[in-house]
Specification:
The radius of gyration is 28 Å and the shape is globular. It has a six-stranded mixed beta sheet with strand order 5-6-7-3-8-9, with helices on both faces. A six-stranded mixed beta sheet has the order 14-15-16-12-17-18, sandwiched between helices. Strands 2-1-4 form a three-stranded antiparallel beta sheet, with helices on one face. It is built from 17 helices and 18 strands. Helix content is about 45%, strand content about 20%. By secondary structure, the chain is α/β, with parallel strands linked by helices. The longest helix has about 50 residues. Strand 8 and strand 9 form a beta hairpin.
Length: about 625
C-alpha cells in the first residue's frame, strides 16, 4: 500500500527522522507514538505528500487515496455546514480532488440512489460527531475552531479513503463523539495511521504501534498497552548496551592515554584509536522522567463544602444553557464535568469563577482558594519572561530545587527552558500554564480540558499529582483514561440539565450504555401479528448467537495469523543468529560491526519471543 524506504528528513541541520523503513498494509491500524517533537506530525505530512524528505523515498499504489486531518488547518468561509459537507459529493461526482493536496478522490457521475445514500450517511456522520440537525444550515463561520475541525473530519470520513492520516483527532471531541469515532474507525475498511495522546482511544482503535525516538522507529505488531510493556523491556536492554559500550569506550580511551607515548605500545594504541573511529556509537533515550514524583503544595484547609449549587440557571439571550442545577461538592472530592460540547460545562465553570452572571444560588465555601486552568490560560502568560522565569516566579520552598526536572518532564528541558514565552507554540504555552498552576497553593482546582496539549507521559505526571492532592478537584475533560481512577463522581451536562452520577468515569459510561439499550428497547417495533412472540425471540437469539460466533471466529483467525507471523520472524532470526555465530568463530571476522549485528539479532529475538508469549497467553 505504502512503502517507506531509507527515509530521512532534517530541519536546520537537525535530523528529525534518520534512515527509517517500514510498510503500511491495507487495513493496518497504526498508532504513531513518541515524545512531543519526536517527528510524528512530520511523518504524517511526509506520508500525505505535504513534506519532501531529505533522502529516501515513499512509494504508493497508483490509485491510493489518502485523507489527512492535520492539527491546524485553513478554513474557507461562505458555506453552511450542509453545503460544505455536500461539496464532497460534488467532488466525487465531478471526479475532482478535495482541497488538501494529499487527497486524490475521483469517481464517475453518481446515480440518484447513490446521492440519497450519501445524504443519509452524511446525516449519520455529522450527528455522530456531535452536531444537531438545527446546525445543518448554520454558516460554517459561526462555529469555533474545534467544531470546524469536526466538519473537516466529516468530509474526510465521507470520502472513504484507502488510508486515513489523523493527527490528534480527539482534541476537540466530547466523550460521546470519541466513542462514535472509535466504532467508525474499527468497522471502516480504510487503513489508519493515528497520532493521539488519548491512551484509551489508541487501545480501542489501533492494533499496531510505531514509536519514533531519536530519529529512529521501532515497530510493534501489538496495541498500545502491550507496546508499553515491550517498550520498557527494549529500553532496559538499550540502556544496558549503552552502558556497556560507554564502559568499553572509557577503558579504551584510558589505554590510549596511558600508552600514547610508549614506542612498544604504538601498534596497539593505533589499533585502539581506529577501533574507536569505526565504532558506531549507541544512542539511548535516557531522559526518562516517567517516575518523576510531582506534588502540589499542601492545600490550605477549606470548609466542608467548597461549592454549593441550588436551582442554578444560565441563559444566553433566548437560549437556555441549563436550569435547576442543584448539587454539592464536599471537601476533598474529585469530580468530572462531562457531556457534549456546548451543553454548559465551561459556562458553569465561568459562573463559579464569577466571570458570568446567573440565576439561582452558587456559594463558594469558607476559605476556598481556587486554582483555575482555563482553555485560554496560555494567553494570560507574560510573553517577555523565559520559561524558567515563569515557573521560578511562582515556585516556593523545596520545589524550587526541582524546577529543571519539572520543566524537563513537560518537554522544556535544556535550552528550551530559556526560550521566551512569546516564541512558544500554543501547545507549549498550555503546558507551561499547567506547570505554573501546579505550583500555586490552592484548595479547589478547576481544570478545563487540561490534557489537550499534553503527551501521555505528561498526563501521567499530572494525574499522579492530582491523585495525591489533598484538596478538591473539578475537571472538565473528555479523556477517559485521564479521568479513570482520578474522579469518584461525574456530573453529566445535557438537555439543559446537570445530572449527578456516583462512581468513576467507566461506571458512568457503563450506565449510559445500559440507558441507551433501554432506549432502543422502548423504540423497538411491536412484533408482526403473523409471528408468535416465542418464534420472534428465538429468531433474534439465533441471529445474536450467529453474530457472536462469527465475531469470535474472526478474532481467533486474526490471533492465529499474528502468532504465525511472529513464529516466522523468530525462525528467520534463529537462522541469522546461527549464521553469524558460525561467522564469529573466525578470528578475522570478529569485528565491532559483526558483534553489534549479533547483539541486535539477540535483542530482536528477545522482543519477538516476548510478543509470542503475550499472544499465546491470550489464546
Amino acid at each position: 500500500m505504502i512503502s517507506v524506504e531509507h527515509l530521512s528528513i532534517e530541519f536546520s541541520s537537525r535530523p528529525i527522522l534518520d534512515d527509517i523503513t517500514f510498510l503500511i498494509n491495507p487495513r493496518d491500524r497504526v498508532a504513531l507514538v513518541g515524545k512531543n517533537g519526536a517527528g510524528k506530525t512530520t511523518l504524517l505530512r511526509l506520508l500525505a505528500g505535504e513534506e519532501t524528505p531529505s533522502s529516501g523515498r515513499i512509494s504508493k499504489m497508483g490509485d491510493l487515496t489518502i485523507g489527512y486531518l492535520p492539527q491546524v488547518m485553513m478554513h474557507v468561509d461562505g458555506k453552511t455546514l450542509r453545503e460544505d459537507v455536500m461539496s464532497v459529493l460534488g467532488n466525487k461526482a465531478r471526479g475532482e480532488s478535495a482541497p488538501q493536496k494529499s487527497r486524490d478522490f475521483s469517481g464517475t457521475p453518481l446515480a440518484r440512489g447513490d446521492e440519497a445514500r450519501f445524504i443519509a450517511e452524511m446525516d449519520r456522520t455529522i450527528i455522530g460527531l456531535g452536531f444537531e440537525r438545527k446546525d445543518f444550515d448554520r454558516p460554517c463561520s459561526e462555529f469555533s475552531g474545534g467544531w470546524r475541525m469536526r466538519i473537516e473530519l466529516a468530509k474526510i470520513l465521507l470520502q472513504h479513503p484507502d488510508l486515513l492520516l489523523l493527527d490528534e483527532p480527539t482534541n476537540h471531541l466530547d466523550i460521546e463523539s470519541i466513542q462514535w469515532l472509535e466504532e467508525f474507525l474499527k468497522t471502516n475498511g480504510s487503513a489508519l495511521v493515528l497520532v493521539s495522546h488519548d491512551r484509551a482511544f489508541l487501545d480501542n482503535v489501533t492494533t499496531r504501534t510505531i514509536e519514533i525516538t531519536l530519529g529512529r522507529i521501532y515497530d510493534y505488531n501489538v496495541p498500545y498497552s502491550q507496546f508499553k510493556v515491550l517498550r520498557q523491556e527494549r529500553h532496559e536492554q538499550q540502556v544496558r548496551a549503552y552502558q556497556n559500550q560507554q564502559k568499553m569506550i572509557q577503558e579504551t580511551e584510558e589505554f590510549i592515554e596511558r600508552f600514547r607515548y610508549k614506542a612498544t605500545k604504538a601498534v596497539q594504541v593505533q589499533s585502539r584509536i581506529k577501533q574507536l573511529e569505526k565504532l558506531e556509537r549507541l544512542e539511548v533515550d535516557i531522559e526518562d522522567n516517567s517516575r518523576l514524583s510531582l506534588r502540589f503544595p499542601p492545600a490550605p484547609r477549606s470548609g466542608d463544602f467548597p461549592l454549593i449549587v441550588e436551582d442554578l440557571r444560565k441563559d444566553f439571550g433566548e437560549h437556555m444553557v441549563f436550569q435547576n442545577a442543584t448539587f454539592t461538592i464536599r471537601r476533598g472530592e474529585k469530580v468530572a464535568f462531562v457531556g457534549k460540547n456546548g451543553e454548559g460545562k465551561t459556562t458553569l465553570v465561568r459562573c463559579i469563577m464569577g466571570q458570568l452572571d446567573y440565576m439561582g444560588t452558587l456559594k463558594i465555601g469558607h476559605n476556598v482558594k481556587i486554582g483555575y486552568f482555563a482553555q485560554n490560560q496560555a494567553a494570560l502568560l507574560d510573553g517577555e519572561l523565559t520559561v524558567f522565569q515563569t515557573i521560578d516566579n511562582v515556585a516556593v520552598g523545596d520545589i524550587r530545587t526541582q524546577i529543571r526536572n519539572i520543566l524537563g518532564a513537560f518537554m522544556f528541558g535544556g535550552e528550551a527552558s530559556e526560550k521566551k514565552v512569546k516564541v512558544l507554540s500554543g501547545g507549549e504555552r498550555s503546558r507551561l500554564a499547567m506547570i505554573r498552576l501546579l505550583l500555586e497553593p490552592c484548595n479547589l482546582l478547576i481544570l478545563d480540558e487540561p490534557t489537550n496539549h499534553l503527551d501521555i507521559q505528561s498526563k501521567d505526571i499530572l494525574k499522579a499529582a492530582l491523585k495525591e492532592f489533598n484538596g478538591t478537584v473539578i475537571c472538565v475533560s473528555h479523556d477517559r483514561d485521564f479521568l479513570d481512577g482520578l474522579v469518584e463522581k461525574v456530573y453529566e451536562f445535557g438537555g439543559g440539565k446537570v445530572k449527578e452520577h456516583l462512581g468513576g468515569i467507566y461506571d458512568f459510561l457503563r450506565s449510559k450504555r445500559i440507558d441507551s439499550l433501554q432506549e432502543l428497547e422502548r423504540k423497538k417495533p411491536t412484533p408482526s401479528p403473523s409471528l408468535k412472540g416465542g418464534e420472534n425471540s428465538e429468531s433474534s437469539s439465533a441471529k445474536l448467537d450467529y453474530a457472536a460466533q462469527k465475531a469470535a471466529a474472526a478474532a481467533r483467525r486474526k490471533k492465529e495469523k499474528q502468532i504465525a507471523d511472529v513464529e516466522a520472524a523468530i525462525a528467520k532470526l534463529e537462522q541469522e543468529q546461527q549464521a553469524i555465530e558460525i561467522l564469529l568463530t573466525d578470528v578475522a571476522q570478529q569485528t565491532t560491526e559483526n558483534f553489534q549485528r549479533y547483539e541486535h539479532i539477540k535483542r530482536e529475538m528477545e522482543q519477538r519471543l516476548y510478543e509470542w508469549e503475550i499472544l499465546s497467553e491470550e489464546e
